[in-house]
């Protein structure tokens, strides 16, 4: 038996169960500290970006979007999947901000990286802070985006919504609380800060 914290959780074998358009499901057999193995189901994800778009009046942009797994609409941040393994994350965030809410920003910084549910998925969302907002043409990408409700609310109100359970999207909760901390004086990371936990396995499937 190895000392606590020193065991290498090596993957002994792996099999694909489902490979879809934006996620994959595989089952890994992993070496455990006691000498045996255990099966771990892993949902592979492309990775995503989200944006706290903060205007000069201290308001943030929220969207109300239908989420089928929960069966109702959620208040969220503008967000979306990374398009390719080599897409620069802040450029993906800029694209999503334009597509979803028709905005661009002069200043970008990194707020937080949010592991959605690391017990079963490698999905990690990078949340950016966008400031110096300007309006750009919004090109609808489909019926779902046409249904979006867009609203600006004071940052303090958005934080209240998160603490009250009215905003439950993990990236939105983490991003809003981080934005409040930055406004209060905390230092955000640069927009091109290293992202060691960016998902790569599923994206690599499309290039292999």
Automatic annotation (TrEMBL):
KW Hydrolase (keyword) present: yes
One GO-annotated biological process of the protein: nucleoside phosphate metabolic process
Single annotated GO MF: hydrolase activity
Transmembrane segments: none
CDD domains: NUDIX_ADPRase_Rv1700
Record's keyword annotation contains Hydrolase: yes
Domain (Nudix hydrolase) ranges: 43-175
Region of interest: Disordered: 188-208
Superkingdom of the organism of origin: Bacteria
Pfam family, one: NUDIX
Gene3D superfamilies according to UniProt: Nucleoside Triphosphate Pyrophosphohydrolase (3.90.79.10)
Keyword annotations from UniProtKB, A to Z: Hydrolase
Any one GO cellular component localisation term in the record: cytosol
PANTHER family (UniProt xref): ADP-RIBOSE PYROPHOSPHATASE, UDP/ADP-SUGAR PYROPHOSPHATASE
Protein name, UniProt field: NUDIX hydrolase
Native source organism of the sequence: Umezawaea endophytica
Upper classification of the organism: Bacteria, Bacillati, Actinomycetota, Actinomycetes, Pseudonocardiales
